[in-house]
Structure formats: C-alpha cells, structure tokens
Design a protein that fits this description.
By secondary structure, the chain is an alpha/beta fold. It has one domain. It contains nine helices and four strands; from the N terminus they run H-E-H-H-E-E-E-H-H-H-H-H-H. The two termini are 35 Å apart.
Length: 284
Amino acid sequence: MTAAVAASLLCLAPATAGCTKEPPASGFVPRLGTPAAADRYGARLLEQRRLVQKAAEDLNAYVVLPYRVTVLARSCAGEGTGYDPATRTIELCYDDLAQDRDLFTRGHPLAPDAPPDASPGGAPEAPGAPSAGSAARTGDEVADQIADQVADQVAEVVRETLYHEAGHALAEVRHLRFDDDRAEEDAADRFARLMLLREGPEGEHALLTAARAYDLAAAADPAPDPTDEHAPDAVRAESHRCAVYGAAPARHPDLATPSRATCPTAWPPARDTWTHALDPLLRR
C-alpha cells in the first residue's frame, strides 16, 4: 500500500461529508480523495454525478458483505485503477477518467479530426447528436456539446470499471479460484456485465459505451500489451456487445451478426455462474 493511499484511508472525507464518523464495518463504502491539480476533471465528474456513491449503493443493494470494502477515488499518478486485496480497497484513479475523456473526445463524430468510423455499428449514439438539417452553430457551441456528451460517456465507463473491480473484491470474499490472472479478469468483466444488464436498457447502453471505449483504445494502440492480464481491448469490446445482444436480442437487432448467433444462449450460463457463486451473499 502506498503512503498516499494509507494517508487517504486514515482520514478521508466520505463522499457526502467531512471526516466526522466511523465508516460502516461492512459493505462497499465510497470515499473521495483530494485530487491533484491535474486530476480535477475526474474528481469533479465523480462528485457532481455521485458515481462512486451510486455504484456502492447498487452493490450493497445486491449483496451483503461480511466486511468493509472501501471504494476509493484518488489521484494515482499513473498507477492505474485496481483492487488492492491487502487493504480491501477498490482504487479508482482520477487520471483514468481524463484518459477516457480524451479518447471519447478524439473519437466524437463532431470532433474536427474524428476518424471516418467514429460511430461504428453497435456503438450507442451520442445523446443529442445533431441531425443533418441542424442549423450551423459556433465552434464554442459544438465544443460544449462534445464536452457534455463525452462526460456522459465517461460516467458510463466509470460504472463499468467500478463493477469490474467489485468483481475482484467479491471473488476474494467467496474464495473463488481461477486458472490464471486472465481467467480472473474475464470473470470480473462478466460481473460488470451482470450488474449493468440487471438494469435493462440503461445498463445495456452503459455496457455498449464501455465497449466503445475499448474500441477506441484498441484503435489508438493496436498491439496488445503481452504483460497485460486483461483480454485485449478489442476482445473485451466484442464480449460486451455479445452480452448485450444475448441479454436482450429483441432490443438490439443492430447487433445481430452471424458471429453473435450464439450470444443469446451464451449469456445466461455466464450470468448464472456468478449468481450461483454469490448465492450466500445475495439479498433476498
């Protein structure tokens, strides 16, 4: 555990108040750390939209933990978001949000240097996207629209990320065993899908937005890192789309492709593997 994290956990303001009371002894407990100057975008977005608090609330509404897992948003100086089993802490890095913002901004259909395929099949349409007949707008108006839509997209990626890391925490609670690190990462991805797809259309949209983020990351850096235990970004993107289509094929005819023909039969057992593993923790 780094000194920065240790200091944060000693007296860290709860997401809604000062350091005034002892945190709960069990459950997912949200905490927002003081951001570095360069990380104000991520900190502001999390605070304004209560993303960490809402994710913790949704997780606590789904499962009962035997101990506390802190969901800590903080400045990481490039360390990367992750779950620390030693401190039972999900660490969400403010700087990761800025990176996602930059990815979505460059890939936005209205961005000056947007690639021709800025909105590939299966990617959710940016809310409020203008029609071909929209009146001409100033550069500032376009920039504001892009910023608003990108903020919505980053917020959805945050939700997927927090649920992924919660999957690691729950795997530890249940003493789940995996063949290797890649298998655990794949399982954590499936838990994120489970949590979002439980929400219906809103969660499906968030999962497709996360898939879009993986698409953009793969396009920016096509060669997968051989040391990364996660699946390649392009694989994670397609797995998200397969799950969305598998969970609700009637709502997503645009996702129907020959390669996804088995998704409607593949998703239920993937979902049930997690629900069975979590059965002792599920709220009744």
